[in-house]
Amino acid sequence: MLNIPPELELSNHDFLTVIQSLNRRCLLEKVTQNGAIFFKLNSIFNFTAKKNIKDGVI
Fold first, then answer.
1. CA pair distance 16, 56, nearest whole angstrom
2. Of the candidates 19, 20, 38, 41, which has an alpha carbon nearest to the alpha carbon of residue 30?
3. What CA–CA distance (Å, rounded) separates 31 from 55?
4. Predicted TM-score of the model (pTM)
C-alpha cells in the first residue's frame, strides 16, 4: 500500500476524474474479486508514480 502525502489527497469528485482519466489512457485495469471492484495501475505507470512520490517529484 502506498502512503499518500496529505497535500496529494483528493476530493471524491477529483478522485473519480483521475480514475476516469487513467482508464481512458489504458493505465488502469478494473479487477473484480469476490464481488468487490478494485483498480490496478499499469505496472510501469505504478513503478514510475511510486518512484516520483518517493523522490518528492510529485
1. 24
2. 38
3. 29
4. 0.58
pLDDT in tens, 4-49: 667 777 888 988 898 899 889 988 888 899 999 888 888 888 888 8
Q: What is d(CA 40, CA 32) in angstroms, rounded to the nearest whole number?
A: 10
At 56, list the grid cell.
518528492
Query: Which helix or strand (DSSP H or E) is residue 19 part of?
Result: helix 12-24
Residue with cell string 483528493: 10
| CA–CA dist 28, 7 (Å, integer) | 23
**3-state secondary structure at position 46:** helix
- For residue 52, give Cα distances in angstroms to 23, 24, 30, 44, 49: 20, 22, 23, 12, 5
